Amino acid sequence: xxxxxxxxxxxxTLGLTIFQNQTIxxxxxxVNFKINNLLINTVDGTxxxxxxxxxxxxxxxxxxxxxxxxxxxxxxxxxDKRDEHLRSADFFNVEKYPEICFTSTAIEKxxxxxxTTGNLSxxxxxxxxxxxxxxxxxxxKGHFELERMDYNIGEDTGTFMVGSTAKIxxxxxxxx
Length: 176
Known about the structure:
alpha+beta, Lipocalin, 10-stranded antiparallel beta sheet, globular, Protein yceI
């Protein structure tokens, strides 16, 4: 009888550990953004190479957390000249600030979705943000808006050439 109880405890513990320690699928995970350009165009872009710790259990939000970074140099807008300019000191300054990172401080359920609150760090600035997200089929999908001037991104550019608000979509696919 004790062996059966020990076996059940071991299987339950392993199942919880496997679920909480999810691995980020770098090939399918990315951050997409949209931002206005010259008030008439929209520039779409992506960041790749997502790494970090992803621990999410809808049944245990208190012990769930995210500590995720993306490689700032992977910015891609399908325009090589623009991408090089975005990597420069005029915008992301990827040599000095190679990563953009988010570390959660709380996760809560709201209706049929979730909200994570945490610290977003980029370009030497850290701000608290909230990211509403859904999680299904091992995929985190979050959406929020970001004021680029809050992070001193392209501050000499103003908001006519490049809009001030970027719409962000995070897709993080994990494997248990």
